[in-house]
Amino acid sequence: MAKGNRGGRGKTTVGSYKDGANINGEVIEFDGDLKLTKNDSSINKVQRVVLDTWEQKRANMKVEYANAFGFKGSEYGELRGGKNGVNLPPYYFANKGSVTTHIHPRGNGGLGGTFSDADITAWSHGNGTTIRAVAKEGTYSISKGKNFNGHGLRMYVQTQFNLYTRKLNGEKRKLQSKVNNGTMTVTQANKTLQKEFNSVLVAMHNDLLNHQSVYGYNYYLEKR
User: If DSSP codes are grouped into helix, strand and coil, which group holds residue 95?
Assistant: First the structure.
């Protein structure tokens, strides 16, 4: 693992997806740039091999799966969840140097998205170094740096999550009103809401990219 890392080194970008991008054969609509980065340098060669094998196996599943691997590549045990979540038990995060990974599936037109507030909370409270989320647009990865501020990051992520939730709920009300008064069809409303949801996921991703040095972590979106 990278030693003496203070956080912020994962901010180097290597490209981006833009609105209407063809991602794994599917056109995805969103506002903003979904920035791609280099690979997470906190993951050692042994871990990278076992992670690549497991993530490629589960990447296209319709429900969430999770697993964790130790510093020397030992597997902690796969867990199966549902369409909207999977349990990430404390033992996944018990050991320093470990990597937890899971799948973020999403239906047609949707990004898989970065980490939820629950993901960040589980990872930041434990001793594990890295958590990853495998999505159609790439693999999100976040690793603790030397000066990692877990409490500060949790508070920031929760604040942003609440802000974006209010924004989406407001958009839902506006679209429902348009459907009710006949100025928009249900199909049009659903398409608009999907783009708004994708745009929120992109904004959350860029938030995490931009605050690495503030909270002492390294954050990536690796291209699949």
Answer: coil
